[in-house]
């Protein structure tokens, strides 16, 4: 098997503890024989999207998702699940974002000082850029949490105004 997506799927299922393919099949309530054939890509067998989603949830292994993103030229970054955030959390987020952006610029400046970019320099810039992307996405998650909290507060105020809860 040389397809990176199929490899990631098979490694996720085969590496599940306890029991590898059979253990994972049982954990997500699938027939072990069918599951094995699907997750090892036996002739004309492949997992369905819901089975794959269930397997990734149970294993916590998102390798197949990373492989799919890579195949199509996308990156994958996990987002936090924030319910709300304070003003100081938001300030921390904004300043972390600014610092991360500055680190990207500084790394590019250092890398380009001799007017050429080596593979190692490009990798360092990439790492700094990924940190900045994560900071941007965290800021967006925090803002979404604030907006959701405000929506819920408005709903509570409206209910109280009409004599509800």
From TrEMBL:
InterPro entries: Phage_186_CII-like (IPR009679)
MF terms (GO), sorted A to Z: DNA binding
Protein name: Phage regulatory protein CII
Protein species of origin: Marichromatium gracile (Chromatium gracile)
